[in-house]
Amino acid sequence: MTQASRLLAEQPHPSIAAIATAAGVSKTTFYRVFPSRADLLQALKVEPKPESRQRVLEAAVTLLRTHSLADLSMDELAERARISRANLYRLYPGKPALFRAILLAYSPFAPVMALLTRMGDRPAQELIPELVATAYGTAAGRAGIVRTLLFEATSMSPEIQQVFRDTALRVFAMIGQILARDMSAGRLRRMHPMLAIESLVGPVMILVLGGPLLGAAIPDAPSGQAAAMELAAHWLRAMAPET
Question: pLDDT, tens digit, for every residue of 150-169?
Answer without folding.
Answer: 887 777 677 777 888 888 88
